[in-house]
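Allow me, if you will, to draw on your knowledge of protein folds for a short while. A protein sequence and the structure tokens that stand for its backbone fold form the material at issue. I would ask you to consider whether the tokens describe a fold that such a sequence might reasonably adopt. Thank you for your consideration; the sequence and its tokens are set out here:
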Amino acid sequence: MSGRPSPALKERRSRKYNVRESIAGYLFISPWIAGLLIFTVISMGWSLVLSFQNYDLATGASSPAGFENYRLLAEDPNVLRSLGNTFVYALLAVPLDIAFALLLASLLNGVSRGSGFFRLVYYLPKMTPSVATAAVFLLLLNGNSGAINKFLGLFGIAGPQWLSDPAWMKPSIVMMSLWGVGGTTVILLAALQAVPRELYEAAATDGANRVQQFFRITIPLISPTLFFLVIVNTIAALQVFDQAYLLFYRDGNSSVPDAARFYGVYLYQQAFQQFNFGPAAAMAWLLFVIIMVITFIQIKVGNRFVYYDGGERR
């Protein structure tokens, strides 16, 4: 009789081990699961309920409102205006963010010595609190004594009133958003480092210059990463809040020009300044639907231009 355990015993032991491993895994991620349920799933469900109710924060009383809150959104001109401003910001910020990050990542990819230090330097602004960043840009973008206008004055250029001229308000926020491209830069740097060097050597042997290598080799091979970043950055741009609020609403003033009225800020005003929680919840769900539609379109269209493993497109 052999001393080896039977296959049935091995299977039972393996099953018990897998169960223990699963329990341990769920215990380790239980704080994240609790946070997801409490702060995301339950909160989203409650906001959906609020969007169909009239809710009084002081008394906690609520009454059914049907689609009245959504009808009010259609009649409120500030909703459409804030959506337009947010779309314009996203159209400006997303391409510039990715292009600037790709430039920085390409520079970092060519650094051999001290690359870790430069990666840290580029990523540190991403870790800076938004309030501190806004304080810096309030000084930089001051139309009368800001450092940017003083620099332009050295070349005889009269700088604009960045924070008071409606034509320059959205570019001001875009400039502030470019300060935090460190996260995008790190992701793109990882994608660039995954491109096989042999392809560049073969292309150089065939006479391709750096520009041709960039557009014929680099861009196609990192296109899945670019595609991911376009979707993620678009979602973030459509939810822009802190940059606009800290630059233009920091003193609680709600009478700013329409050019600085963004959807996230207007939603905040409806909920926490005017206490219109029903319309604010409806605004949140309208934005959710808009983001879902835009993301769906991006996936359908973007897959045609993305090269996956094997070089094929989907």
